[in-house]
Amino acid sequence: MKQIVVVKVGGAHLDNPQYLDQLAIYLQNIRDKGHQIVLVHGGGKEISKIHEVYGLPFIKKAGLRVTPPESMALVSMVLCGLVNKRLVSHMNRFNLKAVGLSGVDFHMMKSDLLNEREYGRVGGPPRVITTPLCQLLKENHLIVLAPVCAGPDGAPVNVNADVSAQAVAIALEAKRLDFVTDVQAVKTQEGPRQQLQSAEVPKLIEDEIVQGGMIPKLTSGIAALEGGVSHVRVGNISSLTHNTATEVTLS
Questions:
Q1: pTM as predicted
Q2: What CA–CA distance (Å, rounded) separates 178 from 17?
Q3: FRET label pair with 148: which of 6, 46, 159, 246, CA 20 to 30 Å apart?
């Protein structure tokens, strides 16, 4: 049986055709090594843009995007529509047999609301039904997955893409979870690190050496390792390709 690699890519450069070319080549290299792939994507930049277009506020609390119902409609438009289909279209130029889904499809990713009064339609780590994913992987499809999940009422909820990737990797018993970022590796006081132990992470966050979007990548990566995923890496496309990214390990 082929081993599964889950890749999470942020939304910062997903409107750049040259970047998408590099991403496709990186994924092709993974497939050429005999692995099956699930690509979980973000889309924060374009979600922010569409809120500006519609004149809606876009607020963050404790690092979470507050998502009232009117925002949830825009989040779904961008993640499940614009970004997902752009990725699928581009990956298929490289004959990757990409198919685009979200967690709402088949209700295969169900998430409870974190705190509806505070955050609106924002969900926690989803429960993943793997049957549809496994069938598509068996048929050698690249699954391109938007992190919009089914809430308790069946309607869409917004789930952090790093958390979604963690949940998918655990559920599929993935060999590896790669977080594709803008930086070569996780940086500490000592500079870029090729190895990082889980016990180091709380102190790095407390001292604000690790900040912003790197925090959910590391916390989700550690949760994935604790859930049985064999390897977690954090880096850009080049460092992930050349094995100079940060490998996160359990202490």
A1: 0.97
A2: 21
A3: 246
Say whether pLDDT at 9 is over 90. yes
* Number of structural domains found in the chain: 2
Q: 209 and 236 in one domain?
A: yes
Nearest to 15 by CA among 39, 40, 38, 49: 49
Compute the average pLDDT of residues 135-156. 98
Asked whether 39 and 7 are in contact (CB, 8 A), the reply is yes
Q: Dihedral sign, CA of 74, 80, 81, 83?
A: positive
Three-state DSSP class for residue 225: helix
For 88-121, how does the pLDDT look when each residue is reduced to its tens digit (9 = 90+)?
A: 999 999 999 999 999 999 999 999 999 999 999 9
Contact between residue 110 and residue 53 where contact means Cβ atoms under 8 Å apart:
no
Q: Is the dihedral of CA 123, 142, 14, 241 positive or negative?
A: positive
How do beta strands 156-159 and 122-123 pair? Answer: parallel
The per-residue pLDDT of the chain, averaged, comes to 96
Tokens matching residue 13: 């450069």
19 and 131 together in one domain: yes
- Residues 126 and 187 occupy one common structural domain: no
Share of the chain above pLDDT 70, in %: 100
244, burial (CB in 10 Å: exposed 0-12, middle 13-18, buried 19+) = middle
Domain interval for residue 214: 176-251
